[in-house]
Design a protein that fits this description.
Helices cover 37% and strands 17% of the residues. The protein is an alpha+beta fold. It has a 7-stranded mixed beta sheet. Helix 5 (145-154) crosses helix 10 (279-290) and helix 7 packs across helix 8 (229-240). The longest helix is centred in the last third of the chain and has 20 residues, at 246-265. The chain is globular and about 80 Å long.
C-alpha cells in the first residue's frame, strides 16, 4: 500500500480529496488511527482497510504483528465516510476524546468545515458536542424533499461487485432493496459475476462492524416472512458447481427466483421499487440511514414543536472560561453570541440554531426575519 508523509500524517492510499474522471472520490472511506498519526483511504469495508494497514506496519517492522498489537490497532481505529460534500466521522460514545483526535488529524488533509460526525441519537455523544458548543456538527442539513432525495442518491455504494447498496451513515451498515436484488438477474448467464454477487450478499450479511451492526441488511422486510436461508442455499449451490452448463444455470435460476419471490412477498407494495418520489419509501429509507427519531432538538431539551426545524450554526467552544470562536461562524451569529456572553457572563456552553420554517401560518405582507434559538448553561 502506497504511503506518503503529509502535514505530519502518514497517508496510506489516495488523498481523501482525490477524484476520478467522473468527479467521484477515489477513496470513499477512511480509517483514522490517532495513536499512529495515520490515515488509510480506500474503498470496500473499514475492516479491510484496517487489515491492509496492519500488513503495511508488519512489512515496515520486518515481522508479524502480535495479537495484542492487532487489538491495539483495531481499538484505535476511527471510521470516516464520504457523504456528498461532507466527510462523516463515526462517533464512539465510549471514547469521544479519540474521535476528536481523529478529526483533528483529518483536518490536516481536508477543510474543517467538510467534517461532520455521527451519533446524534446517543446521549453521551450529544453531550460531548453540546459542551464544545458544536451541536451544528451533528445536525442533518437536509430539510426539503429535494435535499433528502439527493442524500439518498449519494448514499448508493458498492463493495467488491456490481451490487448496489444504500449506506447507513450513522451505523455504517448497508441496505439491500428488493429492486437491487432483482437487478442481479442480469448476471445469471455469467457464472463468475452471478456467483460473486450472491456470495457478497451472504458474506456481508454474516459480518458485523465495530458497532455490532450487520454490514448488510434487507430493506423493510417482514422478518416473519423473509427467509435468508433461500439466499444462502443459492450461494452454496453456486460454490459447489464444478461446471456451468444449461442444467446448472437453470437450477441456479430457479433457486434465485425462489429467493426473489420470498423477498417480494415479505414487503409492503410501497417497497417493491426504489422510488424517492414515493413519500413513504423516501421517508423510511432516509430515516433508517440516519436514525432520525428522536430528533436532535428533543435531545437538547428543546420544545417538540421545533423538531426537524432547526439548523444549528457554527458558534464557539468554551474551554476553561476561554471563548474559542469557530472560523466558520457567521457575522450575525458572532454578534448574538457576544451579546449573550456579555449579558449572562461566564457560561459552560452555548449552542445557537436558526429556525428553518415559520412556526406561524401567517406572516405580515412583505416581512421576513431570521429567527434563532439558543441552548445554553
Amino acid at each position: 500500500m502506497q504511503v506518503q508523509k503529509t502535514e505530519g500524517v502518514s497517508l496510506y492510499g489516495p488523498h481523501p480529496l482525490d477524484q476520478d474522471g467522473q468527479g467521484n472520490y477515489s477513496g470513499t472511506m477512511a480509517d483514522i488511527f490517532p495513536a499512529y498519526r495515520s490515515i488509510v483511504v480506500g474503498t470496500g469495508l473499514h475492516v479491510s482497510l484496517a487489515l491492509e494497514f496492519m500488513e503495511s506496519l508488519a512489512g515496515q517492522s520486518g515481522g508479524e504483528l502480535t495479537d495484542k498489537e492487532k487489538d491495539k490497532i483495531f481499538e484505535d481505529m476511527v471510521a470516516a465516510t464520504h457523504q456528498g460534500k461532507h466527510l462523516v466521522v463515526r462517533s464512539n460514545p465510549a471514547n469521544m476524546k479519540r474521535v476528536f483526535k481523529a478529526a483533528a488529524l483529518l483536518e490536516k488533509l481536508v477543510p474543517p468545515e467538510m467534517i461532520r460526525f455521527t451519533g446524534r441519537n446517543d446521549q453521551k455523544v450529544r453531550e460531548a458536542f453540546k459542551l464544545r458548543g458544536e451541536s451544528w456538527k451533528m445536525t442533518p442539513r437536509y430539510f426539503t424533499v429535494e435535499e433528502i432525495t439527493e442524500q439518498i442518491r449519494l448514499s448508493v455504494v458498492s463493495v467488491h461487485t456490481e451490487n448496489r447498496y444504500y449506506y447507513m451513515i450513522e451505523s455504517g451498515g448497508r441496505l439491500l432493496t428488493c429492486q437491487e436484488f432483482a437487478a442481479i438477474s442480469g448476471s445469471l448467464p455469467d457464472r463468475h459475476s452471478f456467483s460473486r454477487r450472491i456470495h457478497e450478499i451472504v458474506d456481508l450479511y454474516g459480518r458485523r462492524n465495530s458497532q455490532y451492526v450487520r454490514e448488510l441488511d434487507f430493506f423493510m422486510v417482514d422478518k416473519q416472512k423473509f427467509d435468508f436461508e433461500l439466499i444462502r442455499k443459492l450461494d452454496e449451490y453456486l460454490q459447489s458447481c464444478s461446471q456451468w452448463g444449461e442444467a446448472e444455470q437453470q437450477h441456479a435460476g430457479e433457486l434465485y427466483r425462489q429467493a426473489l419471490d420470498n423477498f417480494r412477498n415479505s414487503l409492503e407494495p410501497d417497497f417493491l421499487r426504489d422510488d424517492p418520489g414515493n413519500p413513504l419509501w423516501r421517508t423510511r429509507m432516509y430515516s433508517q440511514q440516519n436514525d432520525i427519531p428522536p430528533t436532535e432538538e428533543s435531545m437538547l431539551g428543546v420544545s417538540y414543536e421545533f423538531n426537524m426545524n432547526i439548523k444549528w450554526q457554527p458558534g464557539c467552544r468554551i474551554e476553561k472560561s476561554r471563548v474559542v470562536m469557530n472560523p466558520q461562524v457567521d457575522g450575525a451569529v458572532r454578534d448574538i453570541l457576544n451579546e449573550f456572553m456579555r449579558f449572562y457572563g461566564p457560561l459552560d456552553y452555548i449552542n445557537l440554531g436558526r429556525i428553518m420554517r415559520s412556526q406561524s401560518q401567517k406572516r405580515a405582507a412583505g416581512s421576513y426575519r431570521e429567527v434563532y434559538i439558543i441552548v445554553l448553561r
